[in-house]
Amino acid sequence: MSGDGHFKVPAPYNEPIRTYAPGTRERESVRDRLAVLSDVVSEIPMTIGGDRRKGASTRPLKSPHRHQQTIGEYQVGAKKDFRDAVDAALAAGPAWAATPFQERAEVLLRAAALLAGPWRDTINAATMLGQSKTVHQAEIDAACELVDFWRFNVYFADELHRQQPFNDQAAWNRTEYRPLEGFVYAVSPFNFTSIGGNLPTAPALMGNTVVYKPATQTLLVASLLQRLLEEAGLPAGVINLVSGSAADVSEVVLNDSNLAGIHFTGSTAVFQGMWKTVGGNLERYRTYPRLVGETGGKDFVMVHESADVDALLTGLIRGAFEYQGQKCSAASRAYIPKSMWEALRDEFAGEVDEIPMGDPADFRNFMGAVIDEPAFRRHSEAIEFARRSSNAKIVAGGVTDESVGWFVRPTVVETSDPSFKLLQEELFGPILTVYPYPDGRWEETLDLCDRTSPYALTGAVFATDRAAIQQASRRLVNAAGNFYVNDKPTGAVVGLQPFGGARASGTNDKAGSALNLLRWTSPRSIKETHAPPKSYRYPFMDDPTDREGGF
Ligand code: NAD
What we know:
This protein is of the alpha/beta class. The protein has two domains: 25-295 and 506-527, 3-Layer(aba) Sandwich (Aldehyde Dehydrogenase, Chain A, domain 1); 299-496, Aldehyde Dehydrogenase, Chain A, domain 2 (3-Layer(aba) Sandwich). Helix content is 39%, strand content 21%. It has 16 helices and 23 strands. It has helices spanning 25-39, 79-98, 101-116, 120-131, 135-161, 193-205, 219-231, 246-254, 268-280, 309-321, 338-353, 373-388, 421-424, 442-452, 466-475, 514-518, and strands at residues 42-44, 46-48, 51-53, 57-63, 66-76, 171-179, 183-187, 210-213, 239-241, 259-265, 290-294, 299-303, 331-337, 392-396, 400-401, 407-408, 411-415, 431-437, 455-456, 458-462, 482-485, 502-503, 521-529. The strands form seven sheets. A seven-stranded mixed beta sheet has the order 14-17-18-13-12-20-21, with helices on both faces. Strand 12, helix 10 and strand 13 (331-337) form a beta-alpha-beta unit. Helix 2 packs across helix 8 (246-254) and helix 4 (120-131) packs antiparallel against helix 7 (219-231). It is globular and about 95 Å long. The termini are far apart. The structure holds nicotinamide-adenine-dinucleotide. Nicotinamide-adenine-dinucleotide binds at residues 187-192, 195, 213, 215-216, 246-247, 250, 265-267, 270, 273-274, 294-297, 328, 426, 428, 457, 501, 505-506.
């Protein structure tokens, strides 16, 4: 279907969040789906050029909260498979680029409708099982945020296309939003199903074809999303899903002369490694690859003496411990006036120690397990480090249990050292470090917060004093790409708070906004002259007097 017309894209809206409260139908149906998925070992193939592909071997995929249970068998692809994925993306490129925008957009709008409707329970249940999310965390991520990405990106792409140059009387000037020349490499992290859905589809919406490597821990849900997108009409070869060693995939993909862009979310070290490889290969590429990376964080909560303490406590618990602190935006350091901290510490610690944690299939739990054994070991070591440090103490949690799943109790560390390691380094787990700062030292502490870590992703200020809010906003202007006033630093919503940070936190291309989509297009300016001139001479040359000299 094509044809003329300025098609109006549907106005986007945020997918309403279901409650899953006792007695609701949605609660029963997601539970049923979770039980079905928990009972089987799902086959997880790669998808290359529309074909399901097996690798040289398979590996078991385990559930974080039941690490003895295999939930799937994924394929370990070889370099030949990754080469084929590049070739499939390149082969599908011209037809996809020539597909009218409204056709590409409809694939995503249909995917959004499928995810909001018949696929919702499956994608939520796979996220609960594979990534150990509670039903609420799965719902706001895997269902709502991904639906929002798909709906809003269509709207933002359309807005971008409407940005056109001025015209004079002589010509019609047009900007054509071409896809990049080559293919895009999308690499996603374990912690958000929505990011896994967005990283390959945002470039695809703009006409690009993609080699997609999801985080291994998410392969169950990633392969289901691939099927969903196919059901929505995504043609073969537009998104090619591979699995196996990330280093092997990268070796093939980053060395290909047709690499046109990287859409990455994950740790700072991996992104920096990819950037270095691309830098080293620069002469090899046909075009400068676009590098878009959203990376680590050490997100702060900055508390003024005028803060509302109840709002602060809720913000700290939700901000630091929801999804086990494994959100890139999770609060992991807090600066609280000393006297306020001393007054609230026991109540806060008591509440943290009562947080229900366990298998997300039990809906009474607020937290599940951390993603895998390496994460569990990293958090256990950080807790031991805090326990042994003379200038820190554990005031809540500090307990781990690996007997059934990778469980780390939400932990609060108090330190008297403003440059304590746990205030600087990303841990990506349920560990919040608090630095109680001397009363009255607000402005110095703002500077301290700004310089303590290399990251600049999210941050929150809690204060009721307007002057303090303004000071924090000014002094921390480059400390966070997403800045919250009297709210937790997590929970950005597509279309409402475009997300991304700078410094070591990424290229700040704001996922789910026109700024991100802009990176996946290479505009061509077209000037078409209505009546081209037929003589090279200009009027100023028509002087009747004789030329003097001249050659
Ligand atoms: P990770 O860096 O370990 O893995 C991310 C992806 O990179 C995975 O798919 C992994 O397989 C792949 N990878 C690993 N080595 C690679 C290599 N050599 N070449 C190519 N790909 C490679 O991160 P993770 O543990 O999955 O996710 C947690 C990290 O992601 C945290 O640092 C977190 O802050 C960050 N994160 C950031 C944002 C954001 O918006 N800024 C959002 C989510 C997560």
